[in-house]
Amino acid sequence: MAEENKREIVIPGEIIVKGEDYLPGDGTEKRGDEVVALRYGLSEESNKLVKIIPLSGVYHPRRGNVVIGKVDNINFNGWMIDINSAENAFLSIMEVPRYVNKDALEEVMKIGDMAIAKIWNINKRGIDLSIKLRGLGKIDEGIIVKVNPNKVPRVIGKEGSMIKLIKDKTGCNITVGQNGLIWIKGDKIDDELFAKKAIQFVADRSFISGLTDALTKWFDEEKK
Amino acid sequence: MAKEFKRADGRKTTELRPVKAKVGIVPNADGSAMFSSGDTIAIAAVYGPKKMHPQHQQNPEKGTLRCTYSMISFSVSDRIKPGPSRRSMEISKITEWALEPALMLEEYPNMVVDVHINIIQADAGTRCAGINAAAMALAHAGIPMKSMVSSVSVGKLDKQLVVDINKDEEDWEEGEGATDIPISMTDDGKITHFQLDGKITTKQVKEAIELAREACKEIYEIQKKALKESLGE
Fold first, then answer.
1. What are phi and psi of B109, to 5 degrees?
2. How much of chain A exceeds pLDDT 70, in percent?
3. In a mutagenesis test of the B interface, which of A58, A59, A83, A87 is the best target, namely the one with the most B β-carbons within 10 Å?
4. Among residues A139, A173, A141, which one has the least CA distance to residue A67?
5. How far off is chain B from A224, nearest CA to CA, in Å?
6. What are phi and psi of A209, to 5 degrees?
């Protein structure tokens, strides 16, 4: 990621910058002419907008996120999916791009199946999922890797650079869920395990800069 | 009143015990911290925000903070019976009240943030150590907070006010005896928790608050340092 802006760890209640012309972004608040941090994380300032990049904590679902989850219940008009968040997520049969027999929802997805879905709405009752877009739907094969949801942006990299590198080097198809679950599908099990190792390498070193270069080096060493 | 008050362990009246703090000690938890002050050691682990269960306890307006304070059976020389007691339940509630004004739980309706505080070793001031550890653990868990919370207990030994008393001082018996005053504050000096039982003049209460304010500033710096250093590992 770009390092032109200086980043600093801030704690709740700490003053990040002083000055009338700064704007408070995610995780910050304006008190008088000071921008104050409201949570623990890395502060980043660009174009006078100050925001905080979280370093820890649970996954907070946002509209538009692509997530990977496990079917944990079926009711009369859809599936309840555990997406690793506090709210339950619901996939309605209306959001499945094919005809579904209401008496046999199991034919589409059983309890315990994994699925890639997109959050299309969040309301008081919970989260609504959809699998109507390309690339979404039930997962039939491959492996799932779990990482800390806060490290997902690092795993993807700037404009997908990191994940593209892993895909190219391992020849696997990888889908990263914003909730920290990653689906890897390769031709051989060994490729999948190799991709898993690469992802864990990135997740373990998420705080260092120039990680894409470090990963390239790591690939060279691993391949021998 | 004596010119120079001598404390048994040689500290000045405004001096804290050696303080240590560390963040991220429980890998499984969403946030965790250790805080020790002299021989008192507290660890706190935060889980959540997660769905409140049982459902009837859900609050649709804002999230709930649920603290569980407990002393480990070997934390004192006479083994204490593990499990909730009258005292630990009271301290759990006090801890919730001390921390809640600093938290912004409006973003998490129907959810709960669980804070588990365990006292590994006790030498007075356990609730303060617990609150300090819990505040750091909550910050580490990424819970939105208006400010940090720091806590210290001010003691009145006979007529002399001292900061951060230990067990020997708590058992002071000369003169008026010992009065323990645990105080918690946000980093801008607003009081979130104040407890007092004993005999004290209003003038001395004000003095005690000023002493606590200075001590809390010191503790805040230590908490801040611990949180900032936790990343480089």
1. -65, 150
2. 97
3. A58
4. A139
5. 29
6. -95, 160
Report how far residue A22's alpha carbon sits from residue A29's, in angstroms, rounded to the nearest whole number: 11
Please give the pLDDT value at position A90.
94
pLDDT at B55 over 70: yes
Please list every residue in chain B whose beta carbon sits closer than 8 Å to the beta carbon of residue A86: 48-51, 108, 111
Query: What is the CATH code of the structural domain delimited by B19-232?
Result: 3.30.230.70
In A, minimum Cα distance to B147 occurs at: A13
- pLDDT-above-70 percentage for chain B: 97
Residue type present at position B156 = K
A29 interaction partners in chain B (CB closer than 8 Å): 146
Closest residue of B to A55, CA-based? B142
Contact predicate B97/B192, CB 8 Å:
yes
Whether B142 and A57 lie within 8 Å, measured CB to CB: yes
Cα separation, B14 vs B7, whole angstroms: 11
Q: Which residues does A8 contact at the CB level (< 8 Å), separation at least 6?
A: A16, A42, A43
Domain boundaries, chain B: 19-232
CA distance A38 to A223: 44
| CA–CA distance, B88 with B104 (Å, rounded to integer) | 25
List CB contacts (< 8 A) between B143 and chain A: 39, 57
- Asked if residue A177 lies in contact with residue A151, where contact means CB atoms within 8 angstroms, the answer is no
At residue B222, φ and ψ (nearest 5 deg) are: -70, -40
Domains and CATH numbers, chain A: 8-54 (2.40.50.100), 66-139 (2.40.50.140), 143-223 (3.30.1370.10)
Q: What is the pLDDT of residues A47-75, one digit of tens each?
A: 889 989 888 888 989 999 999 999 999 99
Please indicate if any CB of chain B lies within 8 Å of the CB of A49: no
Which ipTM was obtained for this model?
Answer: 0.86
CB B147 to CB A55 under 8 A?
A: no
- The mean pLDDT value of chain A amounts to 89
Q: Do A56 and B102 touch (CB under 8 A)?
A: no
Model pLDDT for residues B35-50, shown as the tens digit of each residue: 999 999 999 999 989 9
- Taking contacts as CB-CB distances below 8 angstroms, the residues of chain A near B223 are 11
Residue A31 contacts B where some CB pair is shorter than 8 Å: no
- How near does any CA of chain A get to the CA of B149, in Å? 10
Rounded to an integer, what distance in angstroms lies between the CA atom of residue A119 and that of residue A190? 32
